Amino acid sequence: MSIEKRVEAAAKNIEGKIQEVIGEVTGNPDDKIEGKSKQAEAEAIHTVENIKDGVKKALE
Fold this sequence. Notes:
Elements: H1 3-26, H2 29-59
C-alpha cells in the first residue's frame, strides 16, 4: 500500500470538491467540471491502490 499515493488522492479529492463548490457559487461550469474530474481521478487512484493491496494479500 502506497501511503503517499493515498495522501495524494485525498488531497486531490479535497481540491476537487473545493473547486466544484467554487464553480457552483460563481456559476462557472468549467470549474465545476474540473472539480468533478479531480474527484474522479482521486477515486481512480484509490481503486488502483486497493487492487494492489488485494493482489499483494493474495500472493502472501
